[in-house]
Amino acid sequence: MLNGVINIYKERGYTSHDVVAKLRGILKQKKIGHTGTLDPDAEGVLPVCLGKATKLCDLLTDKDKTYEAVLYLGEETDTQDRSGNILAARSIEGITPEQAEEAIQAFVGDYLQTPPMYSALKVNGRKLYELARAGIEVERQARPVHIYEITVLEMSLPRIRMRIHCSKGTYIRTLCHDIGKKIGCGGCMEILLRTQVERFTLEDSHRLEEIRDIQTAERLLVPVDAMFAEYPAYTVGQAYEKWLYNGNPVQAEWADGIPAADTRCRIYDRQGQFVGLYRYSAEEKRFDPEKMFLA
């Protein structure tokens, strides 16, 4: 079984689930998961976790992300992108680039965002997009997100191409919709490209067609422990490996060294196998497990 993360370039027309299903077919491996849904019309970076690395899925989903998007002014749609049905169309006559830029930058910082009806969020056990397709609209709770930066890359009204660095849980479609509302003419998303998730960038991503067999996939894998390379590594002595494998705390004297202060650490056995992510407590003089990656 392969263990690690592959940076996939998700192409337009595929769902994130499609990517996982195709990889399962290519690699003949069931234990595969993706790290955050991209809409079928969206493209870009989709880290996919294999084997033991599936335990990383929630950690990567929580990471900040960067996108390039095209906002189309003058139209509001039911899906908040241009693939949907037009609900309202307004003229953009009189809107200046300066007004548009001012409205865009107003969203930088903390921002309460109401998730769109066409999304995979669940209400009473049903996905919102299922309700939307049935013509049912339900109240959604606004959620706090954070927009770190929006850079306007090109403005040729009615289109505005932007780079957006944002927190987890941000819907770029909804951001485009809300910017259009603030400008006063309405707007929707025309194009979406995810360019970065944590350390995974567009330049280092690989299309599904490149992954033809297990050997190819193995060459592209980022090992699980490499995801935590910023944390110091320690090895536990052979006499205490049974304790280690059972997920118990590790006493400081059992390892080949100790940190100078409280910190996260990578813990290995004597064979060099990555066991898990631990938190060292200087007061308790021990390493406590945070996330195990043995199975």
Can you give me a brief rundown of this structure?
The chain has 295 residues and is an alpha+beta fold.
Secondary-structure blueprint of this entry?
Layout: E1 4-10, H1 16-27, E2 32-34, E3 43-50, H2 57-61, E4 65-73, E5 75-77, E6 86-89, H3 97-105, E7 109-113, E8 122-123, E9 126-127, H4 128-133, E10 143-156, E11 159-166, H5 172-183, E12 187-197, E13 200-201, H6 214-220, E14 233-235, H7 241-245, E15 250-251, E16 263-268, E17 274-281, E18 286-292
Parallel strand pairs: 3-12, 14-16
Antiparallel strand pairs: 1-3, 2-3, 4-11, 4-12, 5-6, 7-10, 8-9, 10-11, 12-13, 15-18, 16-17, 17-18
Helix pairs in contact: 3-5
Structure description:
The protein is α+β, with helices and mostly antiparallel strands and 295 residues long. It has three domains: 4-61 and 199-225, Pseudouridine synthase, CATH 3.30.2350.10; 65-197, Pseudouridine synthase; 230-292, Archaeosine Trna-guanine Transglycosylase, Chain: A, domain 4. It has seven helices and 18 strands. The strands form four sheets. Strands 1, 2, 3, 4, 7, 10, 11, 12 and 13 form a nine-stranded mixed beta sheet that branches. Strands 14-16-17-18-15 form a five-stranded mixed beta sheet. Helix 3 crosses helix 5. The longest helix has 12 residues, at 16-27. The termini are close together. The mean pLDDT is 92.
